[in-house]
Amino acid sequence: RSGQGSYRIDTSRSAPYQERTRVFEQNTEIEVTLTFTTDRPGGLVRSVAADGSAVTVRQHHSFVQLPELGSYTPREFDPRGGYGSVSWYDFATPIQEPLVKRYIRRHRLEKRDPTAAVSDPVEPIVYYLDPGTPEPVRTALLEGGAWWAEAFEAAGFSNAFRMEMLPADADPMDVRYNVVQWVHRSTRGWSYGNSIVDPRTGEILKGHVTLGSLRVRQDYLIGKGLTAPFVEGDEDPQDILDMSLLRIRQLSAHEIGHTLGLSHNYIASAQRDAGIQSVMDYPHPRIRLADDGTIDVSEAYGRAIGAWDKVAITFGYAQLAEGVDERAEMERVLLDAAEQGITFMTDQDARPAGSAHPQNHLWDNGGDVIEELDRMMEVRRVALDRFGEQVLRTGEPLALMEDVLVPLYLHHRYQMEAVSKVLGGVDYTYALRGDGQQAPTPVDADSQRRALDALLRTLEPAELRLPRPVLELLPPRPPGFPADAEVFTKWADPVFDALSPAAAVADATLSFMLNEQRLARLVQQPVLDAELPGIDEVLAALDEHIFGEQPDDAYASSIVDLLKSLYVEHLMQLAQGASMPIVRAHATHALVELEDRLGEVGEQSKTAESPMDIHLAVEIERFLERGWQGEAPGSAPALPPGSPIGMP
């Protein structure tokens, strides 16, 4: 029903699947084979099924014995602590106390010697790797997962965490084994760190990591675009293989971290000095220009557990001496970390396009996100200027250059997103009453204006154009190598065109800059502090940058035309659809001023100078008279996926 066909179960081809129906010491596993049929299968189904009209899947049911209640001491949830939680209602709670009980999710871990500052555990936490994982990925996963031993050492446990290969006589369905599974799928999908959890206490009974095998290939693709390593055409570049395996180590630690109970911490990348401050962040490869002008990928990803990870494991797992006030001690752990600039911010404050925190982002780098965007744009420009057939091995179709070009051309997309959130940004924490953390504070005026200037620079034709050798070399796709979602949508399809990529990335920048929640904050902030930029300043800067641009050649002129069209479309969307009336008013005012500048069509004294100006004059006049009578137009092609494909 979501575009893939209306399926019905075929009971004649559905039954219990006995091979995977098993009984273990602490769990019973029941699996069934289910066949669903349709006469109109969708494209995604056809791409992975032998016959999309009849899809057979297995559904698995786990019945897990819960531990004896009282044998495990739960730890209270704290929003500053970086853990996921379980919650339930206790209706016997006194009226003056919270009705909802919240505990963190964590494994059971107890010291063999509770009086020792550092002790071996009664039972260590062991994760077992899928023996089907190939080398060199296998070693990388074992090494990355083993990073967690250092965090447990900081929490007072020696030999508390280790990685091993799954024994030949063990079954990954057995709840007694925490497993890291290596799986194949049709896209470079998300990896997952899931757990089976006692819903009464938050105790993790089994960690189960699922890693997609194509993720490592995406990093290798990124490395090819950055370094163009195939000068002779038959090289085997070790540096980009090493970079890809660094990412796999981090991914192993990240997903295992989820199964230890930890949530994402996206502010960590802004708090790092060297290396990485948390494996629970989403890392963007940190690429540097070497002194000789070449691109260096050797330090693209971190090589160890981070400072936040040690804090989080201490908060969740440290075993306290008898008589110590647990809540007070855990409060001290978190506030001591905050004093050192080590804090926690997670998905709800990072993923939305309109989110406000200036340092909490996915796939970004740097304590100063503006400075990092400028540096990243320089790396991107150097790599683009060198881009050519050297990104392919001898014998590969030249059209596959586009596959390598896409992540390089969009190298800055997430850093741009991070910088956009400095505009109208607010610095805040998950503060509790009495913990002494600062109140929400608007980003200072200088940083907001620096962010605005940096974003405008990404919209300059010089940054949006593609090098001429790329355009001259790229042919249409040959037979056997069809285009997929990973390449640009092209207006000139099947021929690669010079403008579709520019329109897609420029539209993304404008979408973040003109996000209606961001603009609503820009309406509000100068009311409270006259020094801060307002919505009028941002719109005026965009207007001047786009309509005041004097292109120096035909290519730049076409890019400027696209920018004009995209900007006007965004203004129309805001004027008609923004929730805040003042945002609608400013967008309408900007359109009226543009109409006056472009001139009314039909008046000889105000004839527009270009076809795009004439078109926009007509569109604005029509819109101001009657608005959109249907769905809002959208002229920009969609960006190819950046994050793994599928729902996170």
Q: Helices, strands, pairings?
A:
Elements: E1 8-9, E2 15-16, E3 22-23, E4 27-37, H1 43-48, E5 54-64, E6 85-89, E7 100-104, E8 106-107, E9 125-129, H2 137-146, H3 148-154, E10 161-165, E11 178-183, E12 192-197, E13 203-212, H4 215-227, H5 238-259, E14 288-289, E15 295-296, H6 307-317, H7 326-339, H8 369-385, H9 401-409, H10 413-420, E16 426-427, E17 441-442, H11 445-458, H12 461-464, H13 468-473, H14 500-513, H15 516-528, H16 535-547, H17 554-577, H18 581-598, H19 611-626
Parallel strand pairs: 8-13, 9-10, 9-11, 11-13
Antiparallel strand pairs: 1-4, 2-4, 3-4, 4-5, 6-7, 12-13, 14-15, 16-17
Distance between the termini: 21 Å
Strand residue content: 5-15%
SS field, number of helical segments: 19
Please give the share of residues in helix: 25-40%
- By secondary-structure content and strand pairing, the structural class works out as alpha/beta
Mean pLDDT: 94
Number of strands: 17
